[in-house]
Write a structure and sequence with these properties.
392 residues; alpha+beta; ten-stranded mixed beta sheet; two-stranded antiparallel ribbon; acyltransferase; Thiolase; Acetyl-CoA C-acetyltransferase; Thiolase_C
């Protein structure tokens, strides 16, 4: 079987809710990343066989196959198709898996895996809220409710359950959040994100161009202190998590270009990394966010590797208890985890986070001269994707 290689990566800098990316239509954000991947790789746009794009809230401006709309807004020819993927927070990581599987099978030679989410223009939970307002049915069917009687699936409840089950106190969560900001600040000041960020022109409220480019992740708190983080009120009374120890609502897009050996030769591109392993796993949908732990253990077993074989980890910081419990259970080196900060500081643009983390992981491996990287994230419904890459 052929192998899958990443030959180009890119992401927008994260935008706060109502912030610097609020004036940009999500389709256009995704199109800019697609164009950047073509430019950075130097390939003929017509050589792209497909665009697979992750997006969670596929409604409103992100409806009607947002992937195809992004193609039509980009410099790609109309001959390039597009399809949209929803695996909740792992949507674009799953897009990467589908892209890799396509080129490994030989059915395609060059596929763009990407993701987009404008959490300003299409707020979180909109797909659930609109039917409720119209008096339509909810996503939980009678059969689901029979299997899980009285259960309301909630990521917030899941985060608190993990904190309690793993004995992670609030002060530990606060310190972790501060470290996420400190690492993101250091990465920004050292230029670690310079080659991965796709500059996007900021639009004013009336839609006109501002002339200013958005190139720095807007969620980073450069003045963050342990005291300021600790002072944020709890999400739930008696709980341990706060908004400061959770991922930030974020606007953004990201993507990677994936090819096989035939694509490397035909397109004349050089690989940045090789897909070494990819898998996905379902787990308890009630605690929901714990899935990266067993998914990582199984992925390592399937890959014939140990946790210490991995040089860098990207574990999405949906809530601080998630990576902390992952570290505790797997015995991983915390110095290798989210070395440039995570979603607590940089933001979590839902459907875009998968290829966003992969973009950062591939670049961090290159900058540090490391070989293997592992990416995983918790996903709604109690799932987790795991991707292991080898830098080339």
């Amino acid at each position: 079987m052929a192998e899958a290689f990443i030959v180009a990566t890119g992401r927008t800098a994260g935008g706060r809710r109502g912030g610097k990316l609020a004036g940009r239509h999500p389709v256009d954000l995704a199109a800019q990343v697609i164009d950047a991947l073509v430019t950075r790789s130097g390939i003929d746009p017509a050589a792209v066989d497909d665009v697979i794009l992750g997006c969670v809230s596929q409604v409103g401006e992100q409806a009607t196959n947002v992937a195809r709309n992004a193609v039509l807004a980009s410099k790609l020819p109309e001959s390039v198709p597009g399809t949209s993927v929803d695996r909740q927070c792992g949507s674009s990581q799953q897009a990467l898996h589908f892209a890799a599987q396509a080129v490994m099978s030989g059915a395609m030679d060059a596929v763009i895996a990407a993701g987009v989410e404008s959490m300003t223009r299409v707020p979180m939970f909109t797909p659930n809220a609109l039917p409720a307002k119209a008096g339509l049915g909810i996503y939980m069917s009678p059969a689901m409710q029979k299997r899980y009687p009285g259960v309301e699936f909630s990521q917030f409840t899941g985060a608190e359950m993990i904190a309690r089950n793993y004995g992670i106190e609030k002060d530990v969560l606060d310190r972790y959040a501060l470290e996420s900001h400190q690492r993101a600040i250091a990465a920004t000041r050292e230029g670690a994100f310079k080659h991965e960020i796709v500059p996007v022109e900021i639009r004013l409220a009336d839609g006109s161009a501002s002339g200013e480019m958005h190139t720095i992740d807007e969620g980073i708190r450069f003045d963050a202190t342990l005291e300021s983080i600790a002072s944020v009120k709890l999400i739930a009374e008696g709980g341990r998590c706060t908004a400061a120890t959770a991922s930030q609502i974020c606007d953004g897009a990201s993507g990677v270009l994936v090819v096989n050996e035939r694509g490397l030769k035909a397109l004349g591109v050089k690989p940045l990394a090789r897909i070494h392993h990819m898998s996905v796993m379902g787990h308890d949908p009630v605690i929901m966010l714990e899935a990266p732990i067993p998914a990582t253990a199984r992925a390592l077993q399937k890959a014939g590797m140990k946790i210490d074989d991995i040089d860098l980890f990207e574990v999405n910081e949906a809530f601080a208890p998630v990576p902390l419990a992952w570290l505790q259970k797997l015995g991983a080196d915390p110095a290798r985890l989210n070395v440039n900060g995570g979603a607590i500081a940089l933001g979590h643009p839902l459907g875009a986070s998968g290829t966003k983390l992969m973009t950062t992981l591939v670049n961090a491996l290159g900058q540090r001269g490391k070989r293997y990287g592992l990416q995983t994230m918790c996903e709604g419904g109690g799932m987790a994707n795991v991707t292991i890459v080898e830098r080339l």
